[in-house]
Amino acid sequence: MATNRPLHGDNLSALREQFLTESVVRAAGSAFSVKEQALLDLLCRGSHPLRGLAREQLRFASCRGYQYDECDCFLISVPKLPKTSRIRHSGGPFSVVDVSRAGEGLGQLELWVVSGYLHSVDYMTYDDHENLLLDLEDADLELLV
Q1: CA–CA distance, 15 with 99 (Å, rounded to integer)
Q2: Can you give the pTM of this predicted structure?
Q3: 105, 123 Cβ separation under 8 angstroms
Q4: Per-residue pLDDT tens over the stretch 69-111
Q5: When you count CB atoms within 10 A of the terminal residue's CB, does the N or C end of the chain come out lower?
Q6: Pick from 114, 110, 27: nearest CA to 66
Q7: Average pLDDT for residues 118-141, to the nearest whole number?
């Protein structure tokens, strides 16, 4: 069973290194970058029964590109799947990760589901923090929902 503990230590250091070394230029339809895959794995973690469907869809998903030039929010493409593989989610973010540094809230990562399919990952920041996930150096990531 997954826990909702903050990600830190060696795991967070490895994730930070991925954020800092990857290029943000890729074609839509390509495989997720290591950074994006790590975020999706975290967002699909947990014991909720629908998380299994999210993890199953993730096996077939690819990157559909970035939503905005000024942030690392990205779109997800999932091929048509049987109705039994679709996520029954009525609205709002499917999964949320809180991003903080030294006790200060920086923002939240949100996994969205639309029409039964994984749709996008948004990074919503608080105050004047950058919209780039590269800003996660020394950050703690905690799965909330």
Answers
A1: 13
A2: 0.76
A3: no
A4: 666 688 999 999 999 999 998 878 899 999 888 888 888 899 9
A5: N
A6: 27
A7: 74
Provide the 3-class DSSP secondary structure of residue 111.
Answer: strand
User: Is-contact 78 115, C-beta < 8 A?
Assistant: no
Rounded to 5, what percent of the chain is helix, strand, coil?
A: 30, 30, 45
Could you give the maximum distance between any two Cα atoms of the chain, in Å?
Answer: 44
User: Hey, how many other C-beta atoms are within 10 angstroms of the C-beta on 59?
Assistant: 7
What is the helix (H) or strand (E) element at residue 41, kind and residue range?
A: helix 34-43
SS3 sequence, 45-109? CCCCHHHHHHHHHHHHCEEEEECCCCCCCEEEECCCCCHHHCCCCCCCCCEEEEEEECCEEEEEE
* Angle (nearest 5°) at CA 63 between 79 and 61: 35
